[in-house]
Specification:
Layout: E1 14-16, E2 19-20, H1 21-40, H2 43-62, E3 64-65, E4 68-69, H3 70-82, H4 93-106, H5 120-142
Antiparallel strand pairs: 1-2, 3-4
Helix pairs in contact: 1-2
């Protein structure tokens, strides 16, 4: 027995002409708030507010950044600005420079270097391996 698997499940249905339900709600809300501003305030004060409301509602309805809706981007930006931030000073620069010198002398690629969080036995084995390689490379040069 064969079953049909639904395709394009992430595409929203167009309910109001070319608009999805979310787009229609954003546009209708923006137009409604603009109408209220136009009726409640004098035109010179309401005009910039109406343009801002219509711009935001249009952005919410139609703009996608990196395939994400504008509301998700706006929420992430808001949470970034109100959350506390932790700034760390990089103190491992000297250790990193020492590793770079060892890598240059040994001729190994940086992919083979173990991280600093590995245990001491692994680091010891790695350094012995480098010394062995340096020794064999020198013997080859002599021959």
């Amino acid at each position: 027995m064969q079953y049909q698997v639904p395709q394009f499940t992430d595409v929203e249905d167009k309910i109001f002409g070319p608009l999805t339900l979310k787009q229609f709600v954003y546009i209708a809300g923006g137009v409604g708030l603009s109408f209220l501003l136009w009726r409640a305030l004098p035109l010179f004060a309401a005009a910039p507010l109406i343009l801002g409301v219509l711009g935001i509602s249009g952005s919410l309805a139609f703009i996608k950044i990196n395939n994400k809706p504008f509301i998700a981007i706006a929420e992430a930006a808001f949470m970034y600005f109100i959350s506390s931030k932790l700034y760390l000073w990089n103190t491992t620069r000297k250790e990193k420079q020492k590793e770079d010198v060892v890598v240059e002398k040994s001729g190994l690629s940086p992919d083979n270097i173990p991280s600093l969080s590995d245990n001491k036995l692994t680091n010891l084995a790695w350094s012995l391996d480098i010394n062995e390689r340096l020794h064999t490379d020198r013997e080859r040069e002599v021959q």
